[in-house]
């Protein structure tokens, strides 16, 4: 066997979750920036848009706790 025959190709397929996160981030930015009236609120909206899954999970846990 030659070294070329011994090489194995590794294919990593991912990206579905990245697309969902990206679309969610854009949606969160639209949501927070539309409601911002000051520059400080706009900066906070951009930061919140980056970590929107944390807010989503927190709201879900609060909702489930009420049942």
Account of the protein in words:
The protein has 67 residues and is mainly alpha-helical. The protein has one domain. It has 4 helices and no strands. It has helices at residues 3-6, 16-35, 39-50, 52-66. α2 runs antiparallel to α3. The radius of gyration is 21 Å and the shape is elongated. The relative contact order is 0.10.
Question: What topology emerges from the helices and strands here?
Answer:
Elements: H1 3-6, H2 16-35, H3 39-50, H4 52-66
Helix pairs in contact: 2-3
Brief summary:
With 67 residues, this protein is mainly α.
Highlighted features:
67 residues, mainly alpha, 4 helices
**Major β-sheet, in short?**
none
Label the structural class: mainly alpha
Coarse shape: elongated
Number of domains: 1
The separation of the N and C termini measures 64 Å
Query: What's the total count of β strands?
Result: 0
Mean pLDDT: 85
Estimated radius of gyration: 21 Å
Q: Into which percent range does the helicity of residues fall? A: over 70%
Number of helices: 4
Task: List unreliable stretches of 5+ residues.
Answer: none
Give the SSE string.
HHHH
| Binned strand content | under 5%
């Amino acid at each position: 066997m030659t070294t070329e025959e011994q090489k194995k190709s590794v294919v990593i397929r991912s990206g579905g979750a990245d697309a969902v996160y990206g679309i969610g981030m854009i949606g969160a930015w639209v949501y927070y920036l539309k409601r911002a009236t000051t520059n400080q609120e706009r900066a906070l909206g951009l930061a919140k848009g980056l970590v929107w899954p944390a807010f989503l999970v927190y709201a879900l846990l609060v909702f489930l706790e009420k049942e």
